[in-house]
């Protein structure tokens, strides 16, 4: 009975609840969904009072100021709650002379401050207050000037970098040098100046720029490496070469050559070369045209004084000496952004290009012009032309010729093995060559022969056997490092002589650097001796030691 009574009471209570809910639903109007409820809106205050002004944002409830950032005249504020429907468009009008413009979004406000205005931002749990004041003229001027200088240095750096990458090296160098002389240096621009000087061939100025950059950022690896590379390529050094050369069916030569570079104070450099040749040949034409063997030594010497001028020019004065030959030569070069042009003249230059010149004191007078250009990152061009006059001791005008040389190099691969394809032209056109007559001995008449012996016959010969050639060669060149201190290079190709014989040619070399200052190299090659006019095969092998100091 008790259980039935409790069930009846619960059933009556449930009916009352259901009826109440239905009445509540019927009496309550339909409300919008939660997503349509507008968020609490921030309240804005913008007041200007004499020499001060303020901008205030307040929210009902707690809020965090997530970001306060100042860039120049721009002040950015970001909050943890949305702005709601607050209207900030009237702020510039209320804060005229303090705020020039305002931009705002979901939870952020950007104020564009007027000139000479400073802002002090104070954030609390209810919002943020920005107090505006006028900057002092001196402080503002100093800050603005500093900011302008910093910005201008950055602009000049990127402008110079663009010029350098575009091949306008001279303009980039001029811009960087002007900035270095007119104000304090920065390491980045000074290092870029070193690269520009290096590209223009001014290695001394490049080293000085690297030193200046290292004073600003000591022990910077890239700067240390750049300076070390320049000194490695251009510093003082001495080199001893020894080679064995065999011309098929002709001569064998053993050649020792001592060369070196010594830098002088200022912009001058001394270069020297001392050469000793041991020649073994069974028959070589003498000055009178008679063939005779020769087994002996011949030496020659070159001494060059080079001077680099401030305006990217260079002059070389060279003195020559050999057996019964003394000569002099001068060369002047102009360096451009991506090119170099040289003109020169030489008088009484010893020439060992052919055997008669080695044995009988050969000499050459010449005028020449050469031009090298870097066409792009992959293309390089070399052109040259000259006028030559050959002679022997006591007779300076035995042959005349014009010469043309050219090469076009294309880099196939720069990553990994450096691979290049090269076309080369080596041409010499003989315009005049002296011919002389030599009387051959007449055969003796028999004792009972009543007929008188015939007159001696004449044989004609050229005292200087220089010959016309036009050699077109295509070569594939590869070079790379085998290990940290071992590198190799190899060339293989074919040479076509339109006026003589053609054939394959190639060369290989291996270089080892056991010490930073010591370099040891081995090499071998095969080619044709086209300069002699015989097109005989030439095999050579040798090596060298080089010491940098």
UniProtKB/TrEMBL annotation:
Protein transport is among the record's keywords: no
Keyword Plastid: no
Residues that span the membrane, as ranges: none
The entry's keywords: TPR repeat
InterPro entries in alphabetical order: TPR-like_helical_dom_sf, TPR_rpt
Superkingdom of the organism of origin: Bacteria
Pfam families to which the protein is assigned, alphabetical: TPR_14
Swiss-Prot/TrEMBL TPR repeat ranges: 187-220
Protein name as annotated: Tetratricopeptide repeat protein
Species assigned in the record: Azospirillum griseum
Organism ancestry: Bacteria, Pseudomonadati, Pseudomonadota, Alphaproteobacteria, Rhodospirillales
